[in-house]
Write a structure and sequence with these properties.
Elements (H helix, E strand, L loop, with lengths): L2 H23 L4 H22 L7 H26 L5 H23 L2 H15 L11 H8 L10 H5 L2 H4 L2 E2 L6 E2 L4 H12 L4 E6 L6 H10 L1 H6 L2 E6 L6 H13 L22 E6 L4 H8 L6 E6 L9 E3 L5 H13 L10 H9 L5 H10 L5 H12 L6 H12 L7 H9 L9 E2 H11 L4 H13 L4 E2 L16 E3 L2 H11 L9 E3 L9 H5 L15 E6 L5 H4 L11 E6 L3 E3 L12 E6 L6 E3 L12 E5 L18 E5 L14 H4 L5 E5 L19 E5 L19 E3 L21 E3 L21 E4 L19 E5 L7 H6 L4 E5 L11
Parallel strand pairs: 3-6, 3-7, 4-5, 5-6, 11-12, 12-13, 13-15, 14-16, 15-17, 17-18, 18-19, 19-20, 20-21, 21-22, 22-23, 23-24, 24-25
Antiparallel strand pairs: 1-2, 8-10, 9-10
């Protein structure tokens, strides 16, 4: 059975759930959602029969199922957009409705051709003729290492380095040595083959985190009939972490020139007369660094090179990022390793198996190792393993050796700062998006990095597949903001960060982390209250992260009278409508970064906010989904606070109390972000007293209708973001009196109809973003914007900048095109 059979069945189920939600909640889409539900319910039984048939369909049938899967997947992504679209954005709702109609037509056309009926007929025929049998795994991973651990391979290095444990054993041996069961390979094979076959030579990549199945995919491509027909010769070399470069180069020389047996290549330049006319494929597996790749591929003649690496070494457009397995595939692989068959044996606890396999989050290596470690174990042992896994701990000693040590190899090439930044990711809850802004601020304050260096570190970790950086067109551009851009991390990588951070006595750790949400703090923390929670001697930092699922009151904190004299970061993550701040917060006199996030449904009321008076060194404050406390004249100033972010908060007129001078409370505040705060109707004029502000972001505030007239007092302001404020009808003329303003973002401010007449006074303005902002009138003074170099707007309003483009040298007018197809869903 092809991987797309699994995918089509699962995605159809998920799409139905989304359509039912749309039908119930989004009345504008109800009729078309109901029609789509009827269509998909008609084909779902056939898809499920194909999905669970257990037979391998011929390639042309797989391609047809793949077409259906692609359509359903795009539909699923489309429904997510529909459910998240804002009611006020009529243009977006119109385009989404058109896309829904196109999706209905595509599925309807597919049904008219009766393709599924023909496929089902093939399934019955294949099931009758085939006798597919899987034997138990013949060799354990440990046996493989013991037998082959000292063997050298052609490219140098050890088998254990080259095979990378489970990537080689993701294939389960069957009764025939030539017959292999590779889980989740078909989609990857199809995409890599398409990349290579559509180009005449070049460098291509297979990338992914450790243990995701890169080597397995590469080996399967080497054996694939289509690949063997397309390329006349194929060379597979394992490079490893410590490659013997000269030996590897000699192998490649001999392969490309036909001069086999050459021990040393004197002149590494294969641009000889006559060239290489045959199609040849060189697969370089387990490449760790760009330096190693360049030394092996420079000056090669025309050939195709496929590099397999944990890092993204090839061009992103020529790289296939290996994905984790879907749930059905993961269960199948897990059962093969735990029970010797790809389905659950009779009588075994199904929910327990699903929960244990679910802790692996679809990672083949984790599934393989965890399943093997639980083989022949009683259910009670499984229960204990599940509890350990849920806390980010190894299931047993072999699990730690085979999985976490294998994953730790991914950190080998990181410098000390990048490694510390990776370990910081363990401070965030599992299965949660992490705001990039929080990470950047942490790294700036604690690791003493510049913002550009912190961002570069984030990108490097992403390229090494140690985290996943969300796609956003603004990311990395000049004046970009990060508060609404997120990163995610696979749970196994988070477990690695927790495993490395939680070594040693709890009082002596650099990071004090809770692996999952609990109703109360770990009891071991309270038992060690008699001793200070200090960092190691050679470090100055003790990071703390507290995750609490319910309410915390004074009594709950009474058993945790802890001291953190060197703490610089505190992250409080809870789910409640009221929350008592921990008493030890008042003793954290060195605290630089405080993050308070409520994951509950409504904003929480914080108690004991007065203890902020002792946080004299606090530089960054992030409040999410809480009631912002009222400010009074007696409020102790936060003299060093530089950045404050209020996300999904209730502002409650906190900045506009009579007689309160906020500039005295926040004398050095340089960056203020207010995002998704639905009770903000008018921007308080008191904010304009904070003359130290360099960046002001008021975004996604649906009721904001007016800006203060004294905005010109912000003489140091360089960045002004007013993104997605649909009720904002005008920009005050005073905005033209900001002498330092460099960036203005008014995108998705759909009620704005014009720019200020004197906008030409902004001599320092460099960039304007006004996407989905329907300003139709030209502003004559705009030709005086001598520093302007980039304007982003919709295509139908780009004409208003024609005169400015002629008057200002080097100005780029970027027209954001409207998209009416579903192709953007693939991005």
């Amino acid at each position: 059975m092809a991987v797309t059979d699994f995918f089509a069945g699962e995605i159809a189920t998920e799409l139905l759930k989304q359509l039912f939600s749309i039908s119930a909640k989004a009345w504008k889409y109800k009729n078309i959602a109901d029609r789509l539900i009827a269509l998909i319910e008609t084909i779902q039984p056939t898809i499920k029969e194909i999905q669970y048939s257990g037979v391998e369909l011929p390639p042309h049938r797989q391609a047809q199922i793949g077409m259906l899967f692609s359509t359903l997947e795009k539909g699923h992504k489309l429904t997510e957009r529909v459910l998240s679209s804002r009611r006020w954005n009529m243009y977006r709702q119109f385009t989404l409705a058109k896309k829904m109609e196109k999706l209905e037509k595509t599925i309807s056309d597919f049904m008219k051709n009766q393709i599924l009926t023909h496929i089902l007929a093939d399934v019955h025929q294949l099931r009758a003729n085939a006798d597919v049998r899987f034997d138990r795994v013949e060799r354990s991973l440990t046996g493989l290492e013991e037998q082959l651990g000292s063997m050298k391979i052609g490219g140098g290095g050890m088998i254990r380095d080259a095979m990378k444990i489970a990537e080689a054993t993701m294939e389960i041996e069957t009764s025939s040595e030539d017959e292999k069961f590779g889980v989740g390979l078909e989609m990857g094979k199809r995409k890599v083959k398409k990349m290579m076959f559509n180009a005449e030579g070049g460098l291509f990549g297979i990338s992914g985190m450790g243990g995701v199945g890169k080597t397995t995919l590469a080996r399967d491509l080497e054996r694939d009939n289509d690949v063997r027909c397309y390329f006349e010769k194929i060379l597979f070399l394992t490079v490893s972490q410590s490659p013997l470069v000269e030996e590897l180069r000699a192998h490649i020389w001999g392969f490309l020139t036909g001069c086999e047996g050459v021990d040393h290549v004197q002149d590494w330049n294969l641009q000889y007369n006559g060239g290489v006319k045959t199609k040849k494929l060189v697969i370089l597996d387990d490449v760790w660094t760009r330096k190693a790749l360049d030394s092996l591929t420079s000056n090669l003649p025309s050939c195709t090179i496929l590099v397999v690496s944990r890092s993204k070494l090839a061009d992103p457009n020529a790289t296939y990022d290996v994905e984790v397995l879907r749930e059905d595939e993961a269960i199948s692989l897990f059962c093969l390793c735990a029970f010797g068959q790809k389905s659950l044996p009779p009588g075994f606890d199904k929910d327990l198996v699903k929960k244990v396999a679910g802790e692996c989050k679809g990672l083949p290596l984790a599934l393989k190792v965890t399943g093997a470690s639980l083989k022949d174990r009683p259910e009670m042992y499984w229960q204990g393993a599940l509890q350990r896994l849920s806390k980010g701990e190894p299931a047993d000693e072999t699990h730690e050796t085979r999985l976490l040590h294998h994953m730790e190899a991914s950190l080998a090439d990181l410098d000390e700062t990048a490694r510390e930044c990776f370990l910081d990711l363990g401070a965030f809850p599992e299965d949660r998006k992490i705001p990039v802004d929080i990470l950047i601020n942490m790294w700036i304050e604690v690791h003493d990095l510049d913002e550009a260096v912190a961002f570069a570190t984030l990108v490097d970790l992403s390229h090494k597949n140690l985290l996943t950086l969300g796609k956003d067109p603004r990311l990395g551009s000049t004046y970009a903001s990060y508060y609404d851009v997120f990163v995610t991390q696979h749970d196994v990588l988070r477990d690695l960060a927790l495993h490395l951070s939680n070594k040693g006595k709890v009082n002596r750790r650099k990071r004090l982390l809770m692996p999952k949400r609990e109703e109360e703090l770990p009891k071991t923390w309270g038992k060690n209250c008699d001793e200070e929670y200090n960092a190691e001697i050679d470090h100055n930092v003790d990071r703390i992260c507290v995750f609490v699922a319910g309410e915390m009151d004074d009594m709950d904190w009474s058993d945790f009278d802890m001291d953190f004299p060197k703490a610089e970061i505190l992250i409080l993550n809870f789910s409640s409508d009221k929350y008592v701040l921990p008493p030890f917060l008042s003793k954290m006199t060195r605290l630089k970064v405080l993050v308070i996030i409520n994951n509950g449904m409504s904003p929480a009321i914080l108690r004991d906010f007065s203890m902020f008076a002792n946080l004299s060194k606090l530089r960054s404050l992030w409040l999410e989904r809480v009631h912002v406390p009222e400010l009074y004249n007696t409020t102790i100033p936060l003299k060093h606070l530089h950045k404050m972010s209020l996300i999904l908060c209730k502002i409650n007129n906190s900045f506009d109390q009579t007689g309160v001078d906020v500039s005295c409370i926040f004398p050095k505040l340089g960056d203020l972000t207010i995002d998704h705060c639905d009770d903000l109707v008018t921007l308080p004029s008191s904010i304009c007293k904070m003359t130290s502000l360099n960046s002001l972001s008021i975004t996604n505030c649906p009721r904001l209708g007016e800006l203060p007239k004294n905005l010109s007092k912000l003489q140091a302001l360089e960045l002004l973001r007013l993104y997605a404020c649909p009720e904002l009808k005008a920009l005050p003329d005073e905005i033209c009196e900001l002498p330092q303003l460099k960036y203005l973002d008014i995108s998705q401010c759909v009620s704005l109809s014009c720019l200020p007449e004197d906008i030409g006074k902004l001599k320092t303005l460099e960039k304007i973003d006004m996407r989905e902002c329907y300003i139709a009138g030209r502003v004559s003074s705009a030709v005086s914007l001598e520093s302007l170099r980039h304007v982003i707007c919709d295509e139908d309003v780009a004409f208003i900048w024609e005169e400015v483009e002629r008057a200002v040298p080097g100005l780029k007018i970027e027209a954001a095109e409207k998209c009416f197809s579903l192709d953007w869903l693939d991005e």
